[in-house]
Write a structure and sequence with these properties.
Length: 504
C-alpha cells in the first residue's frame, strides 16, 4: 500500500482546522517517507518573549518517545549475543537489583520491561507523590544522580511479572542501566555512538548540551490568560524520557524505522523492526497490543506503531505506518492534546481514510452487551431517562419519555443514567451519576450522597420518592428521613425551597 503524495496546502488546512479546536503554543508537524522528510510546517513560536518561530531545527523535549531509542539499544545488544530478551534482568543488571514482591514470584525478564509487564509501578515510595512530577524531575542546577543512587540499591517489583500491563517509566530506566552495564559504556555515550551518530542526528541527545540549549523551545502551560512558562527541570531517569531533538533529526529516525537509508546499524534490519513492531503482549485478540516498546494501533485498517511523549511544557507524538511507508511527527511546546489530534488528522489525510464516526455496530444500551439480567438478582443500566417522577407515579416510572404523562403527573427533569435493580427494594450504591429506581417499589432514589460515597438514610416505600430535603409536591404528608443525611440540606433549608420539588 502506498500513501498519497503530500499536498502542502491541503495538509496546512487540515492542521489549521485542528488548531481551531485544540490550541497550542508552538507546533511542529512533519510527514516522513522512506526517503526522509517530505512535508514540514511550523506554527506559533518557540519563545513568546523573543518571538522565535518554529522551524525544523527547533529543539523539543520528546518525552517518552525516548523509550523506543532505549529499546533499540537493547536490541542491538541482543543481536551482538550479549543478552537474550527472555533472560532475567538480574542476570545482567549490576548497578542495583530488582526486589521481587514475594519469594515465589517469577523473575522479571528483559521482555517484561520492554512491554511494560515487569510488575514495576510508577512510584519508588509514597513520598514521590509529594515531589515534582512524582519524583522524576530534578532542578536544572543539580547533577542527576546515578540510577543506583536514585533507587538506593533496589527497585521494587510490586506484582507478579507478566500478569499485568502497567506503564512503567522505572522499567525503561532499568533497561537503560542494563545497556550501560552490559556494554561497559555510559548510557548517553552509547546512544550517541551507536544510534544518534550513525543516523546523522547531530541535534539529538539525552543530555542538555550547549547547542541544544541554544535552540530549545520554551515549555508553556495553557492558561485562561494565555501561555505561562513552566519551570524548566531535568529528568532524573534519562533512558525513560530525556531526549532533546528536532523535527529534522526525528525525520531521519522515522525514515530508518520505515526501512529507509539510516545507516548500517543492526537495528535497521527488517527482521528486527518486524519483531519490534509485532505484538509481544496482547491480553485479548481484539486489542492491538504492544510491541517491544512500540504502541500498536490501527487507522482505517492501516497498521500503525509509534509512541507519545510528555513532559511539563511539551507534548510529542510519533506515528509510523510501516506498511504504507509513512510516518507523522507532531511536537508542541505547550501541554495540549494537539499533537495527537494533528497526527491522526494528517495521517488520515495522507492515507485517504475518513475520520472515525459513531460506532453503529455497538448496541445503544450497555445492558445488551452482557445479555438480559436475571430477574430478582441482577442489575442493569436502563436507557437514559429525560423525566422522573417526584411522586413515583407508575406512569412516569414506566413511560418517562412521554411528555404529556410527565406534565400531568408532576414529573421533573433528572440526570441520567438510571440503574434498575430487579426484585430489589434497596438501592445499589455506586459512583455513577443519575438517580436510582427500585423496580419492585418504583421508588426514585436520588444520588446526592453517591457522588461523595456517603451512605445517606433514604426514605422507604413507594410514596416517598422525594429527594432528601426537598418538599414533596401535592397533598399528603411529607416524607422525611429519620435523621438528616450529612450531605443533604436541613429541613429548614428545604422549607425555603420553591413548591413543586424544584430548588429556588
Amino acid at each position: 500500500m502506498a500513501a498519497r503524495s503530500p499536498d502542502a496546502a491541503r495538509l496546512a488546512a487540515v492542521i489549521a482546522e485542528v488548531l481551531h479546536r485544540h490550541p497550542a503554543g508552538g507546533l511542529a508537524v512533519g510527514v516522513v517517507g522512506r526517503g526522509g522528510l517530505e512535508f514540514f510546517e511550523g506554527f506559533g513560536v518557540a519563545d513568546t518573549a523573543r518571538g522565535t518561530p518554529i522551524t525544523q531545527d527547533t529543539v523539543f523535549r520528546i518525552g517518552s518517545i525516548s523509550k523506543t531509542f532505549t529499546a533499540i539499544a537493547v536490541m542491538q545488544l541482543r543481536d551482538r549475543g550479549l543478552l537474550d530478551l527472555d533472560d532475567p534482568v538480574g542476570q545482567h543488571l549490576r548497578s542495583y537489583r530488582l526486589a521481587a514482591a514475594r519469594r515465589s514470584s517469577r523473575p522479571t525478564t528483559i521482555r517484561h520491561l520492554l512491554t511494560h509487564t515487569g510488575g514495576i509501578g510508577e512510584l519508588r515510595s509514597l513520598a514521590d507523590l509529594f515531589r515534582p512530577t512524582i519524583g522524576l524531575a530534578l532542578p536544572r542546577d543539580r547533577t542527576a544522580p546515578s540510577l543506583a543512587d536514585y533507587y538506593r540499591g533496589e527497585l521494587r517489583v510490586e506484582v507478579e511479572p507478566g500478569t499485568k500491563w502497567a506503564y512503567a517509566n522505572h522499567g525503561f530506566a532499568t533497561l537503560g542501566q542494563l545497556v550501560e552495564d552490559v556494554s561497559g559504556e555510559p548510557f548517553a555515550s552509547y546512544m550517541r555512538e551507536h544510534i544518534f551518530g550513525p543516523l546523522g542526528m547531530g541535534s539529538t541527545d539525552f543530555t542538555r548540551t550547549a547547542p541544544i540549549q541554544d535552540h530549545l523551545a520554551t515549555g508553556y502551560a495553557l492558561r485562561k490568560q494565555g501561555l505561562k512558562a513552566v519551570k524548566d527541570r531535568d529528568i532524573a531517569i534519562q533512558p525513560a524520557g530525556s531526549i532533546f531533538s528536532t523535527t529534522a533529526d526525528m525525520a531521519r529516525y522515522a525514515g530508518a524505522l520505515l526501512g529507509g537509508d539510516g545507516g548500517q546499524e543492526p537495528f535497521l534490519r527488517p527482521e528486527i523492526l518486524a519483531e519490534m513492531f509485532s505484538p509481544q503482549y496482547r491480553p485479548d485478540p481484539r486489542l492491538p497490543g504492544i510491541g517491544l516498546s512500540f504502541l500498536r494501533g490501527d487507522v482505517g485498517g492501516h497498521r500503525t506503531v509509534g509512541h507519545d511523549g510528555g513532559w511539563p511544557g511539551f507534548i510529542s507524538t510519533m506515528v509510523v505506518a510501516p506498511d504504507d511507508g509513512l510516518a507523522v511527527l507532531a511536537f508542541t511546546n505547550a501541554g495540549s492534546v494537539t499533537p495527537a489530534r494533528v497526527s491522526d488528522a494528517v495521517l488520515r489525510e495522507m492515507l485517504g481514510v475518513a475520520a472515525d464516526g459513531p460506532r453503529l455496530d455497538v448496541p445503544e444500551h450497555p445492558d445488551v452487551w452482557a445479555g438480559s439480567p436475571t430477574p430478582g438478582s441482577a442489575c442493569s443500566w436502563e436507557p437514559a431517562r429525560r423525566w422522573s417522577s417526584v411522586k413515583a407515579t407508575s406512569c412516569c416510572a414506566v413511560s418517562p419519555r412521554r411528555r404529556a404523562c410527565a406534565r400531568d403527573s408532576g414529573c421533573t427533569r433528572t440526570t441520567p443514567p438510571i440503574l434498575t435493580c430487579s426484585g430489589s427494594t434497596s438501592p445499589t450504591w455506586a459512583s455513577a451519576p443519575g438517580r436510582w429506581r427500585s423496580a419492585a417499589t418504583a421508588t426514585a432514589r436520588w444520588p446526592r450522597c453517591i457522588w461523595g460515597r456517603c451512605r445517606c438514610p433514604w426514605p422507604s416505600g413507594p410514596a416517598t420518592a422525594t429527594r432528601p430535603g426537598w418538599r414533596r409536591p401535592g397533598p399528603g404528608p411529607r416524607a422525611w428521613p429519620a435523621r438528616r443525611p450529612p450531605c443533604a440540606p436541613s429541613r429548614a433549608a428545604a422549607e425555603a425551597r420553591a413548591p413543586g420539588g424544584h430548588p429556588a
